[in-house]
Write a structure and sequence with these properties.
Largest sheet of chain A: 6 strands, mixed
CATH architecture of chain B: Orthogonal Bundle
Number of helices of chain B: 12
Shape of chain A: globular
Oligomer: heterodimer
CATH topology of chain B: MetI-like fold
Number of helices of chain A: 10
Number of strands of chain B: 0
Order of helices and strands of chain B: HHHHHHHHHHHH
CATH class of chain B: Mainly Alpha
Order of helices and strands of chain A: EEEHEEHEHHHEHEHEEHHH
Shape of chain B: flat
Strand order of the largest sheet of chain A: 6-7-8-3-9-10
Helix content of chain A: 40-55%
CATH superfamily of chain B: MetI-like
Radius of gyration of chain A: 19 Å
């Protein structure tokens, strides 16, 4: 599955990125790249800093140190027009964050009109087209509160796509969904990946990561522990921390036993 | 009934719990009715009617009480509300600003104007402003002064309400807007404030009701005959006729506005509750 992408230019580049919240040093020197058209899944235990890393890539969090480049523009440059750069970066949140006072169509048209200064007709056309892409054309006039979580998330993806982004960031897009609704959202993401969208996805969906990602990055304790092809990182991890995380994820009961024995080792030391 | 069931039943000694409850409720009703009857019986209704409910005096108040007094009350209130809303919005945004001095100024303003009686602010506008800025006229004469005085009072309360409304909008809304390329100001105007207003519509309408009543303080500014509102009009007429009927009529005129407004507030609150669900 991998090897298909030849990285002609890196779309996202992160250099020696650090982020602290007070005394809490969340990111401790991250270096990574995402090539154009590449799909990179970031996995890791909660608190490992993966969401923070993603939020640093469009500067929703201000990095404490280091550099972030997207499409050749340095976001960490103090003179950068961050609003202009963010128009090229779509972001999808765990909690969808649709605008509840607007209809589905208005959720898609308002940002186009206010931010991109598109006309009424054009923004409506782009909105309709993107709602069709995520399979929700019939919900155009509905309000977000009347939609299921999976539908809301697909609208959120359509809203980001309507801005014509070069890069899409996904922050645990299926974590807030009921299990039976996850599939529809993943299907839309898979479609985007097949169309060649550059994607950085923080997720716990190992099947998605294995089947769709070109690369998988495993983070723990604010650093990248492992970075490689999905079959290597997920199926045959080199590092003990990766193995431990994956075994916990795949078989929680098993992990507990492991943890206990690890504790005992710790005590005997 | 099995033996276990009977064991759970409390031993019947006199009244059951339910019987005791309904007995106590019955006693409460009885006391209440007795109090109302005693009050009604001891009051001198004849004299009250003479003083407050003279049909011919009430008739002679129309149409002026509506076309002049009520109209002015509404006008003062609405202009005061508009000034208060605009100023309150500015102060709320200053209060939430990342610029320290803005926050302090807004905080001091709120503390002062919320802590002072509205009456003192009316006197201040009427006396201190002409002294401090001689030669300057507040635009709109009395109407401008009232709008300003009511607005200054209302702004302090509304600023706190608006601030709470803005803070009640989930943080993710601002993040989503920023991630789409909205500037902070544009996100505030297009995304956050419209949602905040839906949350605070009921308390803002309550503020409108309060302003209706505060508009009576205009009499401390000294008004011409044409500028009188309900309270002043009612009092003037009461002293002319040596009868209090005009006061009652003026009071009913206030209720004519405030009761429907209260109804609207409750409707909106119910609707907001539904939207949250």
């Amino acid at each position: 599955m991998s090897e298909k992408t030849i990285v002609d230019r890196s779309e996202i580049q992160v250099r020696d990125l650090h982020k602290s919240f007070g005394d809490n040093h969340v990111l401790r020197g991250i270096d990574m790249e995402v090539g154009r058209g590449e799909v990179v899944c970031v996995i890791g235990p909660s608190g490992s800093g993966k969401s923070t890393l993603l939020r640093c890539v469009n500067l929703l969090e201000e990095p404490s140190k280091g550099q972030v480049f997207v499409g050749g523009t340095e976001l960490t440059d103090p003179d950068v027009d961050i609003d202009a750069v963010r128009r090229r970066i779509g972001m999808v949140f765990q909690q969808f964050n649709l605008f509840p006072h607007l209809t589905v169509t208005e959720n898609l048209t308002l940002p186009q009109r206010r931010v991109l200064r598109r006309g009424k007709a054009e923004s409506a056309r782009v909105a309709a087209e993107n709602l069709r892409r995520v399979g929700l054309a019939e919900k155009a006039e509905a309000y977000p509160s009347s939609l299921s979580g999976g539908q809301q998330q697909r609208v959120a993806i359509a809203r980001a796509l309507a801005m014509g982004p070069e890069v899409m960031l996904f922050d645990e897009p299926t974590s807030a969904l009921d299990p039976e609704l996850v599939g529809d959202v993943l299907a839309v993401m898979r479609m985007l990946a097949d169309e060649g969208m550059t994607m950085m996805v923080v997720t716990h969906e190992m099947t998605f990561a294995r089947e769709v990602a070109d690369r998988v990055v495993f983070m723990d304790g604010g650093v990248i522990v492992e970075d490689g092809a999905p079959e290597q990182v997920i199926t045959a991890p080199r590092h003990e921390r990766t193995r431990h995380f994956l075994s916990r994820l795949l078989d929680p009961a098993m992990a507990e036993v492991e943890e206990e024995s690890a504790d005992q080792v710790g005590k005997s030391e | 009934m099995t033996e276990a069931d009977t064991a759970l039943q409390p031993k019947r000694k006199g009244l059951s719990r339910r019987q005791k409850r309904s007995l106590s409720r019955g006693v409460q009703y009885l006391v209440f009715v007795a109090a109302v009857v005693a009050f009604a019986a001891t009051a001198d209704w004849g004299r009250l009617k003479n003083q407050f409910a003279q049909g011919d005096i009430a008739r002679q108040m129309f149409p002026d009480v509506i076309t002049l007094a009520l109209k002015n009350t509404v006008l003062y209130t609405v202009t005061g509300f508009a000034v208060g809303l605009a100023l309150g919005m500015v102060i709320a945004l200053m209060r939430l600003s990342s610029v320290g001095p803005y926050r302090w100024v807004a905080g001091v303003y709120i503390e002062i104007f919320r802590g002072l009686p509205a009456l003192l602010i009316f006197i201040f506008i009427g006396v201190a402003v002409p002294l401090a800025f001689p030669g300057t006229e507040i635009v709109g004469g009395t109407y401008g002064k009232v709008a300003l005085a009511l607005g200054l009072v209302a702004a302090a309360y509304m600023a706190e309400t608006i601030r709470a409304g803005i803070q009640a909008v989930p943080k993710g809304q601002m993040e989503a807007a920023r991630s789409l390329g909205f500037s902070p100001a544009r996100a505030m105007v297009s995304i956050i404030i419209p949602q905040a207003f839906r949350i605070i519509l009921p308390p803002l309408t309550n503020e409108l009701v309060l302003l209706f009543k505060d508009s009576s303080l205009v009499l401390f500014l000294g008004v011409t005959l044409e500028e009188r509102e309900l309270s002043k009009y009612g009092r003037d007429l009461a002293s002319q006729t040596a009868n209090s009927t005009p006061i009652l009529v003026a009071g009913l005129c206030y209720l004519l506005i405030t009761i429907p407004l209260g109804f609207v507030v409750r409707r909106m609150e119910a609707k907001t509750q539904e939207a949250v669900k």
